[in-house]
């Protein structure tokens, strides 16, 4: 076995009595709910601050209870079920979307596994449970949640929700591959899929410094996975009214909204665990304070990191415009997936070299040589491709784009242009028509009545 592989010691899990497991599960649920309430108020206030608006200021001091008021309002609203909906799936879809969002937090470490705390006189770890394949469990749970959105769009019996569900399914496929490759880089470097072991491996240096490309890839993919702006294609209000949840109201709509924000908290916790040292104190604090990573303090560092990532979600929403759907697919398939695969092969090569006891200078030399070779090959390929394009005969005029060729209106693809719209008559001609010009006699009935009037006057 390689000396760089993490030794997974999960013997401290599974020893808690049943009542302590219930207490820890309730704490995880409460942590998610309270964080969601804070995130909703923070989002509305931060976006209002960025757009020079007032924001919520009525419910509670400084509007801090606005999200609680929204939840009460949604629970008291009339619950409408559309007539054409498949009622069983229609009711089940919000539950399928919400429950998996809560399940992923079960394997997230809030504190060190070796530092047990006391709860009602019982010593336990600051983590509900852990698994040798905990990260695969998180991926599996996140994949199940997408079925709630797809089923909601299909079961509504309406066109726009169906389009939102299909968009979400395609978006999930596009971004799950890059997300899995970013995870695999962490697995290769840490030698484990256990969340507690991954955090333990970051004792000397966080993986945001060792694996910066994986961190950036996961930041982009987590925004796409949570359907947040600028990747909020499944519920884009501009062209889909509300997307997959258009036909939902009351508590069912609230569950979709809750699932979105809980997913934001979950992916932020996963990012903290994989790349930001998990529950560990930041570098300046951990150097001069030995007790920073003991007791209840790790919970504070973990919460602060999660809140900063939630602020990143809000900042992106208030800064970036929504991308087009073709841009979303192009980013997922032509940029994220190739970059993640190349980076994964590079990380695997470095790990193999380190396992063979090569020093860092040799590894850096091999990596630089590989990067230069790839750049050289791409330059040569582009050179020959440009020569081939210049040798081709000039193509004829492209066929005009007909938006009604298939019998129904179709938007133009990139590079196509709609035919010019007939211009309205100049303003002077319209005034001439209104004032009784010659065009007013184009109608037979009007002309007849006018002629008759003139005849009677004569």
TrEMBL record:
Organism: Streptomyces cyaneogriseus subsp. noncyanogenus
Broad enzyme group: translocase
Record membrane topology: Multi-pass membrane protein
Organism phylogeny: Bacteria, Bacillati, Actinomycetota, Actinomycetes, Kitasatosporales
Cellular component terms per the entry's GO annotation: plasma membrane
EC number per UniProt: 7.1.1.-
Start and end residues of each stretch annotated as Disordered: 394-458
Catalytic reaction list: a quinone + NADH + 5 H(+)(in) = a quinol + NAD(+) + 4 H(+)(out)
Physiological role: NDH-1 shuttles electrons from NADH, via FMN and iron-sulfur (Fe-S) centers, to quinones in the respiratory chain. The immediate electron acceptor for the enzyme in this species is believed to be ubiquinone. Couples the redox reaction to proton translocation (for every two electrons transferred, four hydrogen ions are translocated across the cytoplasmic membrane), and thus conserves the redox energy in a proton gradient. This subunit may bind ubiquinone.
Superkingdom: Bacteria
Subunit and partners: NDH-1 is composed of 14 different subunits. Subunits NuoA, H, J, K, L, M, N constitute the membrane sector of the complex.
Family: Belongs to the complex I subunit 1 family.
Any matching Pfam family: NADHdh
Name under which the protein is recorded: NADH-quinone oxidoreductase subunit H
GO biological process: aerobic respiration
One MF term in the entry's GO annotations: oxidoreductase activity, acting on NAD(P)H, quinone or similar compound as acceptor
The entry's keywords: Cell membrane, Membrane, NAD, Quinone, Translocase, Transmembrane, Transmembrane helix, Ubiquinone
HAMAP family: NDH1_NuoH
PANTHER family xrefs: NADH DEHYDROGENASE SUBUNIT 1, NADH-UBIQUINONE OXIDOREDUCTASE CHAIN 1
Transmembrane segments: 18-42, 89-111, 131-154, 175-199, 205-224, 261-279, 299-319, 331-351, 363-384
Biased composition (Pro residues): 409-421
Principal cellular location given in the protein's record: membrane
NCBIfam families in the cross-refs: PRK06076.1-2, PRK06076.1-4
Compartments where found: Cell membrane; Membrane
């Amino acid at each position: 076995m390689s000396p760089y592989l993490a030794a997974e010691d999960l013997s401290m899990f599974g020893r808690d009595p049943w009542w302590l497991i219930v207490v820890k599960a309730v704490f995880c649920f409460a942590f998610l709910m309270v964080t969601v309430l804070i995130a909703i108020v923070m989002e509305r206030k931060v976006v209002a601050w960025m757009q020079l608006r007032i924001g919520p200021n009525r419910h509670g001091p400084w509007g801090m209870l606005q999200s609680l008021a929204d939840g009460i309002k949604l629970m008291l609203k009339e619950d409408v079920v559309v007539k054409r909906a498949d009622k069983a799936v229609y009711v089940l879809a919000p539950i399928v979307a919400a429950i998996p969002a809560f399940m992923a937090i079960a394997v997230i470490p809030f504190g060190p596994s070796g530092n047990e705390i006391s709860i009602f006189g019982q010593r336990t770890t600051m983590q509900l449970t852990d698994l040798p394949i905990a990260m695969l469990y998180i991926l599996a749970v996140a994949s199940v949640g997408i079925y709630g959105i797809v089923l909601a769009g299909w079961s509504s019996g309406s066109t726009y929700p169906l389009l939102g569900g299909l968009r979400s399914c395609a978006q999930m496929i596009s971004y799950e591959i890059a997300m899995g490759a970013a995870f695999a880089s962490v697995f290769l470097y840490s030698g484990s899929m256990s969340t507690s072991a991954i955090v333990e491996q970051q004792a000397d240096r966080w993986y945001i410094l060792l694996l910066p490309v994986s961190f950036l890839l996961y930041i982009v993919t987590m925004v796409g996975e949570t359907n947040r702006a600028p990747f909020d294609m499944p519920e884009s209000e501009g062209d889909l009214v509300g997307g997959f949840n258009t036909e939902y109201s009351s508590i069912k709509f609230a569950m979709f909204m809750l699932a979105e924000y809980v997913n934001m908290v979950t992916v932020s916790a996963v990012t903290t665990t994989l790349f930001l040292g998990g529950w560990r104190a930041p570098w300046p604090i951990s150097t001069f304070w030995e007790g920073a990573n003991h007791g209840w303090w790790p919970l504070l560092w973990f919460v602060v990191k999660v809140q900063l990532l939630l602020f990143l979600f809000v900042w992106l929403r208030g800064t970036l415009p929504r991308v087009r759907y073709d841009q979303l697919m192009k980013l997922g398939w032509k940029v994220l997936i190739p970059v993640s695969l190349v980076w994964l092969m590079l990380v695997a090569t470095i790990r193999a070299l380190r396992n063979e006891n090569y020093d860092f200078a040799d590894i850096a030399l091999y990596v630089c040589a590989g990067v230069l070779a790839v750049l050289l090959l791409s330059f040569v390929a582009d050179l020959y491709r440009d020569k081939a394009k210049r040798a081709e005969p000039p193509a004829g005029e492209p066929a005009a784009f007909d938006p009604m060729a298939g019998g129904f209106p179709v938007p133009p693809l990139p590079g196509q242009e709609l035919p010019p719209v007939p211009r309205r008559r100049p303003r002077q001609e319209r005034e001439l028509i209104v004032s009784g010009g010659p065009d007013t006699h184009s109608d037979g009935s009007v002309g007849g009545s006018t002629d008759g009037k003139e005849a009677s006057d004569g």
